[in-house]
């Protein structure tokens, strides 16, 4: 079970989407992005105030960007592949920031895993859209 599937409708209630392994991994990647940005933001400054600002501001900007253009419920959600391009760019920035402040290996592993997971999600979504048009 690696794909999200629609559950059957029961008593007129809208079905819930079942979450597969890939969707779970994508959610964990999103959370890890926020955690890495918070850790890197805290590592940027030496003062406690600066650490708090960095730990809140960096993930805040990423979360706002995600909420506007990538969240499934957003009215301005980008279509694929443009959404994938923005996701990969956001992951690349996160990887560079994490690499500089938390270690190169951390940034590299984060980028490889997240780019791979979201590229596969994009591929599946585009495949499903093509299949629906036929």
TrEMBL record:
InterPro entries hit by this protein: DUF2568
Top-level taxon of origin: Bacteria
Matching Pfam families: DUF2568 (PF10823)
Keyword vocabulary terms for this entry: Membrane, Transmembrane, Transmembrane helix
Annotated transmembrane regions: 24-45, 52-72, 84-117
UniProt name for this protein: YrdB family protein
Lineage: Bacteria, Bacillati, Actinomycetota, Actinomycetes, Mycobacteriales
């Amino acid at each position: 079970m690696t794909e999200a599937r629609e559950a059957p409708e029961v008593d007129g209630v809208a079905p819930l989407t079942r979450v597969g392994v890939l969707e779970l991994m994508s959610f964990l990647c999103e959370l890890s992005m926020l955690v890495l940005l918070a850790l890197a933001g805290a590592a940027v400054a030496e003062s406690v105030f600066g650490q708090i600002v960095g730990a809140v501001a960096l993930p805040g900007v990423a979360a706002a960007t995600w909420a506007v253009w990538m969240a499934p419920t957003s009215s301005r959600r980008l279509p694929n592949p443009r959404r994938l391009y923005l996701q990969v760019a956001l992951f690349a920035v996160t990887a560079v920031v994490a690499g500089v402040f938390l270690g190169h290996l951390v940034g590299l592993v984060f980028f490889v895993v997240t780019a791979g997971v979201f590229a596969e999600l994009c591929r599946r979504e585009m495949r499903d859209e093509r299949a629906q048009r036929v």
